[in-house]
């Protein structure tokens, strides 16, 4: 989808900047070294105070744990400390919980962009980052990073694989990335009420058949009205769990031969739909799952004993529910369950596994930024040593202390009396965003959470999850934008109809034929070409 925008002098200057960047070396590896005469402060990433005391605007999601505490990140201890450290006042704009995509589209259509936008520019923006730059929505960052972002530049020069991830095939850098540590790549998966299992004499399910037994028992013996629930808007249940047992996925994925496939038209996808249709008909899946578009609905299901299983986050879900649930019922216990398979002892074909670069939490600078240099320096602060400490651990002496050289959260974080640990963390740090994640950081407060991550790691997801940071060319992006929106819309419509029984599964062949007629093979080929190019970077 091409977004038409009125040309103004700012856009012209941005285009000239992009052209200069392209004429120079687009790779940081070949960029000229910083002038030796630069001050120590600038080389270490400290902001030039002559340019501070100015204001930036930033559109970004707010952590779900903050919604009941503050309305704006500027009001948090983290926001105040960031302003103090950088000297820059930031006016934050937060989309409503569960409405980020809709409100982002409205933002783009409004033609009134903030300076900085935190969004998934790879898979959520139609056409990806090359298209976003061609549409003059965001600007290329090569020259800016080279000259004004010494901390990010140093990181990319020292981590060649990460450097590959955060630029396009043409060599353009377009975001300040969210970078996960190696021990933070797996954080979401199936979980189940262990106290219910113990009461019913059942074990943690590992196969599809065992899951059926457990969900049926939850319905019949625990009175669960929605034994299995999930947030459909994020495809958490249907993307990684249950469907993966049939060696496919509800999305594009990479098969065992390294070829890109579109899972929803695989023959075995029909088997997965048959399973979900059966479970839905028997009342084992939340009948309102398609309406669960925010975390509040999920909270209500899991904490009211309406549901005994879901697929969600280990910290923002399991940890939060354990803290709240045990206040009402000391026996309340959630544990992780393996990604299910068809046969006992099989290794799961796919599951949730992220890459070092997480597009969803990364920030781009918009073409409307009145002071791109200030925005770059503000964003680069998060990659400095001091900034990294703030983003990962908060304020020294308040949220953390350094014990034997290792940052440790203080008792204040876990014993506030007013807020739980997750809520305190969300006030003092930025759980997700453009900064280098620290492997020493952990939001987990229960041993069940640590064990859960080890369980969820036991999949072949690393082989089959297709990276979200592939960058089709502008021409490819135009083709994808034209085809993929209609394909996805039709797939979603039919997926819901198949599961709820509105459409009989006898029509699956007609459905796959229709998707093929809509051009899915062209889209798959584009992804394959982009994947091949990425591997050659």
Structural description of this entry:
With 537 residues, the protein is an alpha/beta fold. It folds into two domains: 10-26 and 52-180 and 358-428, Periplasmic binding protein-like II (D-Maltodextrin-Binding Protein, domain 2, 3-Layer(aba) Sandwich), CATH 3.40.190.10; 188-352 and 450-536, Periplasmic binding protein-like II (D-Maltodextrin-Binding Protein, domain 2, 3-Layer(aba) Sandwich), CATH 3.40.190. It is built from 23 helices and 13 strands. Helix 3 links the parallel strand 1 and strand 2.
Features:
537 residues, alpha/beta, D-Maltodextrin-Binding Protein, domain 2, 2 domains, 5-stranded mixed sheet, 4-stranded mixed sheet, 13 strands, globular, disordered N terminus
């Amino acid at each position: 989808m091409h977004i038409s925008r009125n040309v103004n002098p700012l856009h012209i200057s941005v285009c000239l900047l992009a052209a200069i960047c392209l004429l120079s070396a687009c790779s940081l590896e070949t960029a000229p070294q910083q002038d030796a005469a630069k001050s120590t402060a600038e080389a270490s990433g400290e902001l030039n105070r002559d340019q501070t005391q100015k204001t930036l605007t930033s559109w970004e999601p707010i952590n779900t744990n903050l919604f009941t505490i503050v309305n704006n990140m500027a009001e948090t201890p983290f926001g105040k400390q960031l302003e103090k450290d950088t000297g820059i006042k930031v006016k934050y704009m937060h989309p409503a919980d569960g409405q980020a995509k809709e409100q982002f589209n409205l933002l783009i259509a409004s033609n009134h962009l903030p300076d900085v936008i935190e969004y998934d520019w790879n898979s959520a923006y139609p056409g990806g980052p090359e298209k976003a730059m061609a549409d003059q929505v965001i600007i290329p960052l090569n020259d800016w990073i080279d000259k004004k972002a010494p901390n990010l530049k140093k990181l990319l020069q020292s981590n060649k694989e990460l450097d590959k991830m955060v630029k396009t095939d043409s060599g353009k850098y377009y975001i300040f990335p969210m970078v996960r540590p190696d021990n933070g790549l797996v954080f979401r998966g199936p979980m189940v009420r262990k106290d219910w299992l113990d009461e019913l004499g059942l074990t943690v399910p590992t196969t599809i058949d065992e899951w059926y037994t457990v969900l049926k028992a939850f319905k019949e013996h625990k009175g669960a009205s929605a034994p299995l629930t999930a947030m459909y808007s994020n495809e958490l249940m249907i993307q990684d769990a249950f469907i993966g047992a049939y060696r496919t996925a509800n999305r594009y994925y990479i098969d065992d031969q390294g070829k890109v496939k579109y899972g929803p038209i695989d023959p075995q996808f029909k088997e997965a739909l048959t399973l979900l249709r059966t479970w839905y008909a028997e009342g084992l899946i939340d009948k309102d799952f398609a309406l669960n578009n925010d975390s509040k609905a999920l909270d209500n299901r899991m904490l009211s004993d309406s549901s005994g299983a879901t697929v969600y986050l280990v910290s923002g879900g399991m940890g939060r529910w354990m803290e709240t649930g045990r206040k009402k019922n000391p026996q309340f216990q959630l544990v992780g369950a393996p990604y299910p398979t068809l046969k006992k002892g099989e290794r799961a074909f796919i599951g949730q596994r992220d890459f070092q670069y997480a597009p969803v939490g990364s920030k781009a600078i918009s073409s409307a930024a009145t002071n791109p240099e200030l925005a770059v320096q503000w964003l680069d602060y998060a990659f400095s040593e001091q900034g990294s400490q703030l983003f990962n651990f908060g304020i020294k002496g308040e949220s953390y202390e350094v014990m034997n050289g290792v940052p440790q959260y203080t008792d204040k974080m876990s014993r506030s009396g007013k807020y739980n640990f997750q809520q305190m963390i969300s006030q003092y740090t930025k759980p997700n965003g453009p900064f280098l994640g620290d492997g020493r950081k952990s939001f987990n407060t229960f041993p069940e959470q640590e064990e859960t991550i080890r369980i969820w790691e036991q999949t072949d997801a690393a082989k089959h999850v297709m990276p979200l940071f592939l960058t089709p060319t502008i021409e490819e992006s135009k083709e994808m934008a034209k085809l993929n929106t209609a394909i996805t819309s039709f797939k979603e419509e039919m997926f819901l109809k198949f599961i709820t029984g509105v459409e009989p599964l006898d029509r699956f062949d007609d459905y796959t034929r229709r998707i093929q007629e809509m051009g899915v093979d062209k889209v798959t080929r584009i992804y394959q070409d982009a994947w091949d190019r990425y591997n050659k970077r």
